[in-house]
Design goal:
Order of helices and strands: HHHHHHH
Radius of gyration: 21 Å
Number of helices: 7
Largest sheet: none
Number of strands: 0
Helix content: over 70%
Strand content: under 5%
Distance between the termini: 39 Å
Number of domains: 2
Shape: elongated
């Protein structure tokens, strides 16, 4: 493949993802745009060489600070900080993440048994039937049960 064709396909690959991710980011829906971009990365990595990946990595690092400072809204910055360190605000923004971590850890290897999870039954996990179902399942079925669910999935 010639260099010009390679550059054209590389730019096309970037545009095919950058346009929808940019539109979704503008909504503002940071989470969905990050998920789409992360899903695109394996495709991108499979079609590029180390030099291009290094260049892209440097560009992302250079663009990260201005994006964080000027493009993200305050609540989006708070969510990113909570994602990185939920213990920064353990009684407000990081509460649910910490409780779900406690639930998964308290399940141990075998679990507490169906219906006997303290975090889910005592309502420390607010939506244990939907949003935190894996944490509740991990507490009740333990490492073995959660691993089985992942394998079946």
């Amino acid at each position: 493949m010639s260099v010009s064709k390679l550059k054209n396909s590389f730019l096309l690959l970037i545009l095919l993802v950058a346009i929808p991710v940019g539109i979704i980011f503008w909504q503002p829906d940071l989470g969905t745009s990050l998920v789409i971009a992360a899903g695109w990365l394996p495709i991108f990595f499979s079609r590029t060489n180390l030099k291009t990946l290094t260049l892209l990595f440097v560009m992302v690092i250079l663009a990260a600070f201005p994006t964080y400072k000027f493009l993200l809204k305050d609540y989006q910055r708070d969510r990113l900080i909570t994602f990185i360190n939920p213990y920064n605000d353990p009684l407000d923004k990081g509460y649910h993440v910490i409780q779900s971590t406690i639930a998964v850890g308290s399940g141990g290897f075998w679990g507490r048994g169906l219906g006997h999870g303290t975090q889910s039954q005592l309502r420390f996990l607010p939506e244990h039937n939907t949003d935190f179902i894996f944490a509740a399942l991990s507490e009740e079925l333990g490492f073995i049960g959660s691993s089985l669910v992942i394998i079946l999935f």
